[in-house]
Give the backbone structure.
Amino acid sequence: MAKQNYSGLKARLIAMNFAQFFVWGAWLITFANYWFGTKGWGPAEFGQVFLTLGIASLFMPTLTGIIADRWMNAERLYGILHILSGAAVFTFPFIDDPNTFFWVMLLAMSFYMPTIALTNTVAYNALKTVQLDVVKNFPPIRVFGTVGFIAAMWLTNLLGFKASENQFFMSAVASVLLGIYSFTLPKCPPQQKAVGKQSFVQLFGLEAFKLFGSYKMAIFFLFSMLLGASLQLTNMYGDVFLDDFKHIPEYADSFVVRYSTIIMSISQISETLFILSIPFFLKRFGIKKVMLFSMFAWVLRFALFGFGNPAEGLWMIILSGIVYGMAFDFFNISGSLFVETQTDAKMRGSAQGLFMMMTNGFGTIIGAWTSGIVIDKYFLLTDGTKNWQDIWLAFAGYALIVTVLFVFLFKHKHNPKDVANFAH
């Protein structure tokens, strides 16, 4: 393939990744402001609604991975899911009951969450089809997903949407447009064909669950779940935490309060740098050390939030945003690439779905459900505000325990040759 066609392919995959995370960034970080501020609903219900990300990720990424592996082109399935997700998100502003919101949110997330794994499947297949090195070429493409997330966050804040229903309308329109665009993406046909009489496991593509039979993969997925509990906590509570400084007179008119979403976007800006460093770190240190770097970064992320403030502690809030890039990418992106090398080509879509199920499924459920209950029971002050310092330090303590356990339980000998497998 000519060099200009390589560039054309990358541009198309960049557009897909940009829109994929623009759709989410339009409301994910600011949703708490709408929930607590505009609607006046409580933290326990908020935790339950965020459970929908986890519940949807328990079964939908795996199910859609199976469909993409066996029955339907991944890019077509991807487009259909985005159109349905956008339609569901469009209805959010018309809901006035938190219980009803839970079910509609679950529907929207059932359509959206599997698209995260399908984005990787479509991109990996397209790059390999033209014999491009995935570990070299995918991170610079994926980084534009983070750029899209940042762009959506900034638009939401600067347009005054962070406590408004307009954030959902913006997301819904972008999702439908991405769904239509998806049908123009490079074809990603199923890799498995039904041959002869097949068992239930073979028929429904459940072979990926056999990966739990390997100690290394079982431990990897276990810690994917435990660390996944941390992934959504700052998305759930970060922006509303910064916004809550408005209740303290000396910080009420600070830049942090007025532009809390832009301050939060430092985390995503940091992601763009750390994504680009993943090939170096994976080749040099291997998956275990890269994941350890991620876990230590989560401890720092939470602890710095705990001690930061909009004045003399502003540097801690900014540094917390910077380390988030390592915390998120060194686990999420590297973990996806690790799964890609450790699984057979015929089950990679299913395996990516399984990875999503453990991180954004069980992991998010642990994080969302327990955090909502614990905050409601132990960290609400008598005036109804939240004890944010203790909340963040409790999260930091959890991340530290997970880190220590990982050091002793995950056994993986780094082989630089493994990284070369990403290209094949």
The chain has 16 helices and no strands. Residues 9-188+205-423 form a domain with the Growth Hormone; Chain: A; fold (CATH 1.20.1250.20).
